[in-house]
Design goal:
Elements (H helix, E strand, L loop, with lengths): L2 E4 L7 E4 H9 L3 E5 L5 E4 L1 H7 L3 H4 L13 H14 L3 E8 L5 E12 L5 E10 L1 H15 L5 H9 L4 E6 L4 E4 L1 H7 L9 H17 L3 E8 L6 E12 L5 E9 L1 H24 L1 E7 L4 E4 L1 H6 L11 H5 L7 H14 L3 E8 L5 E12 L5 E10 L1 H30 L3 E5 L5 E4 L1 H7 L3 H4 L4 H4 L2 H15 L5 E9 L5 E11 L8 E8 L1 H27 L2 H27 L5 H29 L6 E4 L1 H12 L2 H4 L2 E7 L6 E4 H19 L7 E10 L3 E8 L3
Parallel strand pairs: 24-26
Antiparallel strand pairs: 1-2, 3-4, 3-7, 5-6, 6-7, 8-9, 8-12, 10-11, 11-12, 13-14, 13-17, 15-16, 16-17, 18-19, 18-22, 20-21, 21-22, 23-25, 26-27
Helix pairs in contact: 5-6, 19-20, 21-23
Length: 704
């Protein structure tokens, strides 16, 4: 997009983009732009077409060639006055048309300022007022001519395209020319915009009271379309030959000029805001003068201090970092030599030693002969962008290294690593995990971890995963069995956690898996060995109870012998006492069964039998164990204290295992009492009922 840049004092080049240039060139009035010193830097296409001058001929002060020689001094003096005051102003002068004819124009100029109020240039318009000027001359001639020429005056006034009106001293309308009548039409009011009514009334009251000329801009409603348009109104009070004073008013439609000025101001404000937000400034290099002009934005970015001479290219190259300076100078010289675009990114060293990053572009401007006249460009402060880019590069480098480390750990880990989605589908597995289950990476990707998990562990495993996904757990551990590809079952310990997601990656599950099959087998072997050792120790403990067991067996056997002798006596009596013999025989049978029961219990304690859960009376089980101990505590000089609750609830258990448990506890207590001396050794056995259907058996001693 082409750009016209207007050199401005203080804030440097002032730019008009191609879109605005197209708007200015399309305007039906003559538009121009000037530098702060008054030299023209841009003339609109209509201005060039009207005068027949080229853009190069009109540049600077060349536009004077189109001004009438009788008006040039007056116009130049007025222009210098505006430049000195910085105020807007207007003046009438004749401008030569391309066919050589001069016409009267209203030259209007307005200053342009930046956000800080500094002058950055001028914009102006030339409005054709030749018809109005002729009307005023005609009026003057009519006032000086006889009455017979007034018809000629009216004819001239009606053919002037300006709005002309004559009012009495008090403001009553006496004459409207044809243009004014057509503009006003049959509107019931004067057509003044409501927002301008108060201003007009105040100005008229002042003019009527003082007789001073009235000049203002206001909006009038055009009758043909009802649109309000800006008009310039100028009224003067003059007296006729008969001494009657009247107001003579000439109105010019300046709506197009105002629209252009508003568009220009909006563009100026927009461009200034864009420069501020983008930290972009403009610059211009005049090859013939070897001068550089820069905006305040660039000067601030480069740390320019008051009094620094920055008018030469070398003063700017000296601010470039020494490592970048040769390349930047070479690029600029190449652009000048080849008349090509200039682009360079470089570092600038500020007076305090800090570094700023700049990116500059420049466009070559040539004259009609193709000679390079100047470079117009822009420079953007890229420091924040460069720092952000550098930080991002460092972050990306760190991320890349982190990913490499993670990949190395992932691939070379001695334990299996598996990543799955939230449904359990494998996303990635390392070689250790694949070797553990016997699948390739492609094969294992077809499964979920539950499909490879043994059926007995699937429900509990998925329950843990559900709690993990719901946030009830941060991680969990589980030991379970997997089925390998070859059908074998292996034990695996999994440490499972949920990895949070990011903007580019959803959440996933990570499992660290260790094959513990050998450990499980070792533990099972150890458990069996410990059980066998415990059984041997148990048998050894029972060996110490041989006397008690023998006594337990001898009691029913002695009873059998005694009852046998009694039975023989009852049978040998004359006559035989059969009822007594039968009673003795029955006691023999009972004592034999008691002896058999003692032997059976002893064998059950020595032999490892299958578990049989039945309804048991705890007090009965305790009594059986105590009868088995018999006199063993007494031989150990231990006092046995037994208190059993009569209302214990029944329990379901294996009788032999419960007997073994109670016997072990009692033997342990007796063993703990062996070293005790000097005080009574006591073994206490108690049973109590707890809350609900629960029972408590307490075995205690006062040993060491």
């Amino acid at each position: 997009m082409s750009t016209i840049r207007l050199p401005a004092a203080g804030d440097g080049p002032h730019s008009v983009d191609g879109q605005l240039r197209a708007v200015l060139d399309a305007m039906p009035t003559l538009v121009w732009l000037a530098a702060p010193d008054g030299a023209a830097v841009y003339t609109g296409q209509r201005w060039l077409e009207y005068t027949g001058l080229s853009a190069e001929q009109a540049r600077g002060w060349g536009w004077n060639a189109a001004v009438h020689e009788a008006d040039i001094n007056r116009l130049t003096t007025h222009w210098q006055t505006l430049l000195a005051s910085g105020a807007r102003g207007e003046i009438e002068a004749r401008l030569r048309r391309s066919d050589g004819q001069y016409r009267w124009f209203l030259f209007s100029a307005a200053p342009l300022h930046d956000d800080s109020g500094r002058l950055t240039g001028w914009c102006g318009t030339n409005i054709d007022i030749d018809d109005r000027h002729r009307a005023e001359e005609a009026r003057t001639r009519a006032e000086d001519s006889p009455q017979s020429t007034r018809r000629q005056f009216h004819a001239v006034v009606d053919n002037i395209p300006a709005l002309i009106a004559i009012h009495s001293r008090s403001g009553e309308v006496e004459l409207l020319n044809r243009a004014a009548q057509e503009y006003r039409g049959r509107q019931p009011d004067d057509g003044v915009h409501p927002d301008d009514q108060a201003m007009l009334i105040g100005a008229q009251q002042h003019a009527f009271a003082t007789g001073e000329p009235l000049e203002l801009e206001l909006r009038l409603r055009r009758a043909t379309d009802g649109a309000y348009r800006w008009c310039h109104m100028r009224s003067i009070l003059a007296s006729d030959d008969d001494g009657v004073a009247r107001w003579y008013t000439v109105g010019t439609d300046i709506h197009d000029r105002k629209t252009a000025e508003d568009a220009l101001r909006r563009s100026e404000a927009f461009l200034l805001e864009v420069q501020r937000l983008s930290r972009t400034g403009g610059w211009r290099y005049d090859l013939a003068m070897d001068l550089v002009e820069t905006s305040a934005t660039i000067q601030r970015a480069c740390g320019v201090r008051p009094g620094d001479d920055i008018s030469r290219p070398t003063s700017w190259f000296d601010r470039v970092h020494p490592d970048d300076r040769p390349a930047v100078q070479a690029q600029f010289e190449c652009a000048i030599r080849d008349k090509t675009e200039y682009r360079a990114g470089y570092r600038v060293v500020l007076p305090d030693g800090s570094i700023r990053y700049q990116y500059a572009t420049g466009h070559p401007v040539t004259n009609d002969a193709g000679d390079l006249v100047e470079f117009i460009g822009a420079s953007m402060d890229m420091t924040e962008h460069w720092l952000a880019t550098t930080e991002r590069g460092l972050a990306e480098e760190a991320l890349s290294k982190s990913e490499e480390r993670w990949r190395a750990v992932f691939e070379n880990s001695a334990i299996g690593v598996a990543l799955t989605d939230l449904s359990g589908r494998y996303l990635a597995t390392n070689s250790a995990y694949q070797n553990m289950l016997g699948y390739t990476e492609e094969e294992i990707g077809q499964f979920t971890f539950l499909e490879l998990t043994h059926e007995d562990f699937r429900e509990s495993n998925w329950q843990f995963v559900t709690e993990l996904l719901e946030g009830k757990r941060t991680q969990f551990q589980i030991e379970k069995q997997y089925r390998r590809k070859d059908g074998k079952l292996i034990w695996v310990r999994n440490n499972v956690s949920l990895v949070p997601g990011t903007k580019s990656m959803p959440r996933f599950i990570m499992a660290l898996s260790e094959d513990i099959t050998e450990r499980k087998q070792t533990e099972e072997t150890l458990r069996r060995t410990q059980a066998e050792l415990a059984h041997v120790a148990w048998v050894a403990s029972l060996g110490e109870m041989t006397a008690s067991i023998a006594h337990e067996v001898n009691q029913p056997l002695a009873a059998v012998v005694a009852n046998g002798h009694a039975c023989l006596r009852w049978l040998s009596a004359a006559p035989p006492n059969l009822p007594k013999a039968v009673e003795a025989a029955e006691r023999i049978v009972k004592d034999g069964k008691d002896a058999g029961e003692v032997v059976r219990r002893v064998r059950a304690l020595f032999k490892r039998t299958a578990i049989e859960r039945v309804r048991l009376d705890l007090d009965e089980v305790i009594g059986e164990v105590l009868r088995l101990l018999d006199s063993y505590p007494a031989r150990k000089h231990v006092s046995l204290d037994v208190v059993l609750a009569p209302d214990l609830p029944p329990v379901f258990a294996d009788r032999v295992q419960l007997q073994q448990l109670l016997l072990n506890l009692m033997l342990n207590a007796l063993e703990a009492l062996e070293p005790v001396s000097g005080r009574v050794k006591q073994l206490s056995v108690r049973s109590t009922r707890a809350e609900g259907q629960r029972a408590v058996i307490q075995i205690s001693d006062n040993g060491i």
